[in-house]
Amino acid sequence: MDLIDKLNELATRIHRQKDTVLTEEAAKTAFVLPFLQALGYDVFNPSEVIPELTADHGVKKGEKVDYAIRQGDRIVILIECKSIGTTLSTKCAGQLFRYFAVTEAKFGVLTDGIRYIFFSDLENENKMDDRPFFEFNLFQFNENQVDELKKFTKSSFDLDTIISTASNLKYHKALLAEIKTEFESPSDDLIRMLTSRVYQGRITQQVRDQFADLCYKAMRDYVREQVNDRLKSALETESIAEAPIVEKAGKSASDNEIETTPEEWEAYRIIQAIGAELVETEKITIRDAKSYCAILFEDNNRRPICRLYFGKTKISAGIFLSEGEENCPLEKVSTLYQHKDMIKAAIQQYL
């Protein structure tokens, strides 16, 4: 089983159990240890996954970090666990900061069993950075994040490789946060920079105030145009009537008596168009079967978006949310647009 499949399975189980796992110890046993196991570590070997590691230092004595992972003869990762729902700020990582300085570990992980926040010493050696370089959320991850997480698996762990990419990850995340902030509320520096490129006069306070609103609207319009272009791209496909028949399990559609109908193709394009607001349309795929037509995320049957049940007399769609499959009767294919929010939620859970 691939790592992504193990993570999907674990995420599904956590969704079911999270309301009953109320303490830190329960989260460690039910969620954190299975996560480490998914990464290939032997959680039953205390010389590899060390529980309650003690490493006294000058500030406090007798403190323990929840887990330490050893590779060969070296401790490489320290893990501090909190109960589900804890705000995982740097204030919660006090023990990690102290232990990091007195062990040879290069990575500290703060987790509540769902979110895993990775720190290192990219700025000052042997001093854990205040800002993490990577975060993995079991309830919201994509393939790129899984690829980054794979570097921490037992079989792939290579200190030099991770360190060489950690800096880019850290600052990429920081830049995304800054860009988000600028889109939501453009800073004075950005407003003045953009204004100076299009306005020839002196930038007075009055001019600055005028362009503050213009900059905000222009950035919003740019994003809207990009979304509309993606929607247009999704809809500008070859004629539905000329669409090829989907093959299944290595056989032609005729061999399996499966034929994707024009109505199913139309529904597929509508779901692609809705999903284009969130992801590239190629990530939303179609896989036909005898009793239904499946719309999947990244062609993974463990990541269903919905199933189309198109009979001769009535049609419906089963939309897959975290709670299960929600059946939605359809008056006609275009009625799918009325379930836009549910379809987007079904896609969002895989991002």
**Separate helix tally:** 9
Report the strand count.
Answer: 11
Number of discrete domains: 3
Strand content: 15-25%
Oligomer: single chain
Q: What would the CATH topology of the largest domain be?
A: tt1808, chain A
Residues in helices, as a percent range:
25-40%
The main pleated sheet reads as: 6 strands, mixed
Through-space gap between termini: 21 Å
The topology string of helices and strands comes to HHEEEHEEEHHHHHEEEEEH
CA radius of gyration is 25 Å
> What would the principal axes of the Cα set say about the shape?
flat
User: Order of strands across the widest beta sheet?
Assistant: 1-2-3-4-5-6
- What structural class do the secondary elements suggest? alpha+beta
**CATH top level of the largest domain?**
Alpha Beta
Low-confidence stretches: 237-255
CATH architectural grouping of the largest domain:
Alpha-Beta Complex
Short overview:
By secondary structure, the protein is α+β, with helices and mostly antiparallel strands. It folds into three domains: 175 residues, tt1808, chain A; 51 residues; 109 residues.
Relevant terms:
about 350 residues; 5-stranded antiparallel β-sheet; flat; tt1808, chain A; alpha+beta; 3 domains; single chain
